[in-house]
Amino acid sequence: MTLLVSVFSAVIFTVLWYKNAPEGKMLYSVPCFLFWGASIMWFVDAIFEYIELGAEEYFSPAPEDMLNDLFLGLSVTALGLIIWLIVLFIKDPEGRVKAAITKKKKK
Amino acid sequence: MACFIVPGTEAIVVTAAVAVLKAKENKAVKLSTGNNSESKLSSVTQKLTWLAGLLWGGVILLAFEHLWHGEVVPFPPFLTAMTDPAETAEMLHEMMTVGVTMAVLVTALWAIGVAVAHIITSRSTNETAEENA
pLDDT tens for residues B101-120? Predict the structure, then answer.
């Protein structure tokens, strides 16, 4: 479930990146790297778990485990989004944060 | 248990390589033009930045997952598996199998991405040359 949530996040941000390419004003590449990197690593984890548990046990998880994994996936997505926002505000490609701060100071 | 440490180590090495290459490129530009402004990244450095991004992205989110499962703690020894020798052995085995596979797969997929980017760039260069001819 965590892998699925991560893959969906990665696909959504890749589409957004593609829609806005080659301009990088929103830094969509940051969440793309975050979620694709994590998805690849969780995919490897899933393969090893599949080998260890077998198909039957792997594809029929307990509802409690699924809920916990979904909660984890959503929390991971929230963390990824916060990281993206921090990077966006620090790099500030369009200078909006800088403009907002200087405007306040001028007042 | 601590599989993310292997791609994490690779991420540190790649980031260091990117930093060294950037410094060298900036120095070369500074010497040739006398300009202090940062130069545009070369193709190799830019592509290594993609690998570093993928590795750091995965490592950060996986570290959070390990924290969630209580396998990583914010105090020494940081990895709960380090408290028991049997668990430490299991952790090392997981690092050698799952961790190494993670690092290899991320690098392999990055290499495929780099190859595809190279093909696209060469194609567009050829098309522009043909149009100009």
Answer: 999 999 999 999 999 988 98
- Tell me if B57 and A33 make a contact (CB, 8 A cut-off): yes
Number of folded domains in chain A?
Answer: 1
On the 0-12 / 13-18 / 19+ scale of CB atoms within 10 A, A16 is middle
Closest CA to B48 of A33, A93, A85: A33
| CB-closest option in B57, B62, B68 to A36 | B57
Percent with pLDDT over 90 in chain B? 51
| Cross-chain residue pair A35–B57, CB shorter than 8 Å | yes
- Residues belonging to chain A with any Cβ–Cβ distance to chain B shorter than 8 Å: 2, 6, 29-30, 33-45, 47-48, 72, 75-76, 79-80, 83
Distances (CA, A) of B111 to B42, B48, B115, B120: 17, 10, 6, 14
Give the C-alpha separation, B65 to B74, whole Å. 13
For residue A53, give its domain range.
2-106
- Cα A2 to chain centroid, rounded: 11
Q: Decide if B57 and A75 are in contact by the 8 Å CB cutoff.
A: no
Q: Which of B30, B60, B24 is nearest to B42 (CA)?
A: B24
Return the pLDDT at B14. 95
Nearest to A37 among B57, B65, B101 (CB): B57
- Asked whether the CA dihedral B42, B45, B48, B54 is positive or negative, the reply is negative
User: What does the domain layout of chain B look like in residue ranges?
Assistant: 5-132
